[in-house]
UniProtKB/TrEMBL annotation:
Protein name: chorismate mutase
Enzyme class per UniProt: isomerase
Domain Chorismate mutase, chain residue ranges per copy: 265-356
GO process terms (BP): chorismate metabolic process
GO molecular function (one): transferase activity
Keywords, ordered alphabetically: Transferase
InterPro entries per record: Aldolase_TIM, Chorismate_II_sf, Class-I_DAHP_synthase, CM_dom_sf, CM_II_prokaryot, DAHP1/KDSA
Keyword check for Aminoacyl-tRNA synthetase: no
Keyword Transferase: yes
Enzyme nomenclature, EC number: 5.4.99.5
């Protein structure tokens, strides 16, 4: 049996989009029960309640989760409100405790997926389980590592699998906490069409504003569900306060979602897919242009300090020749690339001119 042959019928027990909601971290019994009660009272279609029991935090000495006591609160959420429950496991001890407490869905966090030893330890502790195991993408955009984690789970006889796209971290500050990369997710989907894919807009956005758009974009490209951090009192949350939303806002978000036709032959589905990829590339183009302009500024300062003219015709010649050659190689028109590079070069000269004049 290999990953491609897995049927992954578990997702069919849920209507789509399959929503998982609940706080980043379990904090207290009352916070858990109030959050669960309010999600229930909205009547939004949320079958699964999440809460982090053990929290991987960037720095030491902060709140690292309540630990096993929180598993009792997840149990109460299940008993009182009928949710299935989900939590993150990051080592064998977490796995044994979560299985003992009958948590329904376990996920491997982004910081664990990067580490094959950790994934192997978790997989072995889970050996033969019927539970659904979701694997978040690793923090770095490495598709092979992500797939490797699933293979380690399958190697231990674990067949109910799914993945969560939570974005990729970069040193570069962007509008996202973790940049989404639809291409890598689509590459995954084309290789493993049967493995359900969920989106985690909370850890992608890092704020409350972009959540609905990211979730809808994911549905547009064929994702089957989302995991969204939801807290009774988001501003007071002990972790990830900026990105958590109230149950009522969650219900509104879910109400506005449109499940897309995922049939590739369907026009709408295709359009959504292409448009999302284009937005993704546009975003990267802008980021790259901004990096280019910042380097250009540095060159401007060097030129100023050394009394060198801004316009260096030989350099410009090399740049345009290279760009034209690349354009032809990649099947684009020479005229188009000339136009684009002329605009970039003009802006670069403008930026350097400002440096020469103003400082
Ligand atoms: C989380 O879901 O709370 C979490 C820690 O996410 P990630 O592993 O994506 O950082
Ligand atoms: Mn979180």
């Amino acid at each position: 049996m290999n990953l491609k042959e897995l049927q992954n019928d578990w997702i069919n027990a849920f209507s789509q989009p399959m929503m998982i909601a609940g706080p980043c971290s379990a904090e207290s019994e009352s916070q858990m029960l109030e959050t669960a009660r309010r999600i229930k009272e909205t009547n939004a279609n949320v079958p699964i309640f999440r809460a982090g029991i053990w929290k991987p935090r960037t720095k030491p000495n902060g709140f690292e989760g309540v630990g096993v006591i929180g598993l009792n609160w997840l149990k109460k959420v299940k008993e009182e409100y009928g949710f299935k429950t989900a939590t993150e496991v990051a080592n064998a001890h977490h796995v044994f405790a979560a299985l003992e407490a009958d948590v329904d869905i376990l996920w491997i966090g982004a910081r664990s997926t990067v580490n094959p030893f950790t994934v192997q330890e978790i997989a072995m502790a889970l050996r033969g389980t019927e539970k659904t195991i979701l694997v978040k993408n690793p923090v770095n955009p490495d598709l092979a590592l992500w797939i490797g984690a699933l293979e380690r789970l399958l190697g231990q006889g674990i067949k109910n699998l799914g993945v969560i796209h939570r974005g990729f971290s970069t040193y570069q500050k962007t509008k996202y906490r973790n940049n989404p990369n639809w291409q890598i997710a689509l590459d995954f989907k084309s290789q493993f069409p049967n493995i359900p894919m969920l989106i985690d807009p909370s850890h992608i956005c890092g704020n409350r504003i972009g959540l609905a758009d990211i979730t809808q974009e994911a549905l547009n490209v064929g994702y089957q569900g989302a995991i969204i951090e939801t807290h009774a009192n988001p501003d007071e949350a002990w972790s990830d306060a900026a990105q958590q939303i109230t149950p009522e806002i969650l219900a509104e978000l879910i109400g506005n979602l449109k499940m897309r036709n995922t049939d590739l032959a369907g026009f709408e589905g295709d359009m959504g897919r292409h448009r999302t990829l284009i937005s993704d590339i546009d975003f990267q183009l802008i980021e790259l242009l901004s990096q280019r302009m910042k380097i250009s500024e540095k060159i401007g300062r060097l030129k100023k300090e050394n009394d060198i003219a801004i316009f260096q015709p030989e350099r410009w010649k090399v740049i345009t020749e290279y760009a034209i050659q690349k354009a032809v190689e990649t099947g684009m028109s020479k005229e188009f690339i000339e136009k684009v590079f002329k605009a970039i070069h003009e802006e670069s000269i403008e930026v350097q001119n400002n440096i020469m004049i103003n400082r």
